[in-house]
Amino acid sequence: MTALSSPADQLDGDRRRDHALRLLRDRRAVLIRLVQRAYLVLLLDRGSPSTTDPVRAVVPIPSGTDPRLVGAAVRALADRGLIHRAGLSRSVRPEAHRRDLPLWALADRAAAFAWLDAHPELPDADLEPAQRTLWDDK
Which pLDDT tens digit goes with each residue over 70-102? Predict the structure, then answer.
């Protein structure tokens, strides 16, 4: 039987998650930017909510890179108010085992276009140094 977590445990979990996501965003900035741009373009083109599965198909995650960086990239867009959570859907990627994924929708089309204009692609991801682990603070 699992005990319900306390509000303090939930806050600690949120703090740890946010720290790990910040590390991913800082250490894999080029790849994060590719994912963010591809996801906004996808939502702008489709005009409807989507999971991140289609982005995973067009932005390959290099071997040895923590795939949770996709979540870090998308969460940063949500934190900026560009997208909002619009429900849940099951993943269609076999390796994701049909787990539930958030559906994200644009919060503001004009803001998404402005963000894309202000945030061009960064230099090639192949030039980025190897990813350190989330727990390597050096």
Answer: 988 999 999 999 999 999 878 776 666 666 788
Positions of E strands within 31-122: 83-90, 100-106
Per-residue pLDDT at 96: 61
Which residues are CB-contacts of 44 (< 8 A; sequence separation ≥ 6)?
106, 109, 112, 113
What is the pTM assigned to this prediction?
A: 0.75
Q: CA-to-CA distance for 16 and 120, rounded, in angstroms? A: 30
Q: Which CATH class is domain 14-120?
A: mainly alpha
The residues, ordered by sequence, that sit 6+ positions from 46 with a Cβ below 8 Å of its Cβ are none
Tell me the torsion sign for CA atoms 49, 25, 134, 11.
negative
